[in-house]
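Shipment paperwork, digital attachment
Item: protein structure file
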Amino acid sequence: SNTYKFLSGVFCDTQWYPNTLMELTGLDKSLRKTIYFPYEGEVLLSATSQTDAPILWASRFVDQKRPDLLLAIAKKMSRQVFHIYGECDTHHQHILRELKKLPNVKYFGAYDSFAQLCSNKQYSLFLYTSAYDGLPNVLLEAIANGLPIVASDVGGIRELLAEDVLMSADASDQEYVSKIEWLLQDADALKRSWQYAHSVIKTRHQWSNFLSE
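Attachment content:
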């Protein structure tokens, strides 16, 4: 490209994307840099989750976020309560209707801020089922608000979360169910997974780190 000679560098907030960029474009390693963006909100010092509390899912009802997978999980975990937030596009209204029929699901609609979701409710964990992503800020918010996470291993998510809470991109609903049930039966494992991500935020996602780069 004629513009390549004017490029002084490319930076993003994961290690995953620069490597993907190299594979796609052949961009030289010296021009690629990872700078993790700072988290500006308050970060709680201890986990707030309770293993007998509802599971939280908060995202848009679009293909990327896999509401179909959420529905399959909720159906199989009929004794587990799910609290669901997020706007639904016209193409996924049928999934939302099916979710609303389940006695273990409570749908609350759109929300203004993640901290608001956690201000007066207790959750066991935050479930994130995205099919593809970078390093979504909502995961930083969940950890900052004391919630452990079970998430798909896509994009740069593994750069934040411990290995034992990551689900392969093609994991089945039953694999998610097995992982969640294991964590809900092991409060120590649940807490350790939160502590791992909490440490990452406290040491890596600070303004001082960002500015020094």
